[in-house]
Amino acid sequence: MSAPSSIPEAVGDRVDALGTRTTVAVGTVLAALLAVGALAAAGSGDTVVAVLELLFSKSTLGAALRLSVPIAFAALGGIFAEKSGVINIGLEGLLIISAFAGVYATSVTGSVWLGVLGGVVASTLLAALFAVVCIEFRADQIIAGLAIWLIALGLAPFASQVVFGSKNASAGATFPDIQQLLADTGIPVLSTVVVDALAALGELPFFGALFEASPMVYLMFVAVGASWWTLNRTSFGRWVRASGENPKALDTAGVDVTRVRYAAVLLSGVLAGIGGAALSLSLGQFVGNGPTMVNGKGFIAIVTYLLGNYNPIGALLSTMLFAGLDALQFSLQGQDVLAIPQSLVRTIPYVSVIVVLALFGRTRIPEAAGEYYESGEE
Prior knowledge:
Elements: H1 2-41, H2 45-55, H3 58-83, H4 91-109, H5 112-136, H6 141-164, E1 168-170, H7 178-185, H8 188-201, H9 215-233, H10 235-245, H11 247-252, H12 257-283, E2 285-287, H13 297-307, H14 312-335, H15 342-345, H16 348-360
Antiparallel strand pairs: 1-2
């Protein structure tokens, strides 16, 4: 009788171990890549110092946190979908449509929070379409995911052109930082004591960026913790994992596999919607030219959760790796520190991700991922 009750604990311990290995791997690789890259490109000791100053500057950390938000939320959504057995490579499309919907809703209502809600609604509706096509009509999940991306890639700029008269649109508002948000509450303790404490902490040389960040950064950390807890400590999380590993066993236990997969895919739409809206509203605009302002972040999100081995904490660390290197390359371009072409500097995050995948890309994909299953079938 003790075996069934020990299964969740065993699974949780295994996930914890995977997260620990990911933490060590990502931290080690990040340090090695930055050190080797700086020293290799340096022409003098002054260059090394300049690169290190940029790396540990408050502005670089602030940019890394901001860049992490849409990728991390999309990665969390991808984890839930794929853990349930549905491969959602349409995350890029969900980010695009929610980025536009967030700007549109904000421009209409004047509230960035209602803008986030609008982005979530748009993304969830597109995710629902994807779920119906894949689960109900048994479409190939990879092709359906690409279709979702292409639909959003065409629909969002077209809608922006129709509504705003341009592929680029302004929301008219952006997120306040955490200090301004608390000050606006008018609550005595929050608007005075806490704000003053955050302002003092914000003066710290490097970690001060954490205390001047957007509320979406804090929401990202909360979402990561909540996602880990949901997957490893709740019945729904166990159902999601079982749906992706052994749907027949879950069905035999009396749980509707189809409903679990629908719920997981819709949840991926909600999370990606938050990420897409956060991306556009952090800048106060939607950019629909070319690949749009999303520019591959949905595909990077897939890489991050694969590198994190479907662990939300590992996915966050992987996201921070990419976002940190992306922020660094922006700083290096702005300061013109390295004596190499800027086109090569821009490739630093992407080359680093490839190297990390080559060294640590031993991901265990759920057994039933991509496979159709109908509840009640033999």
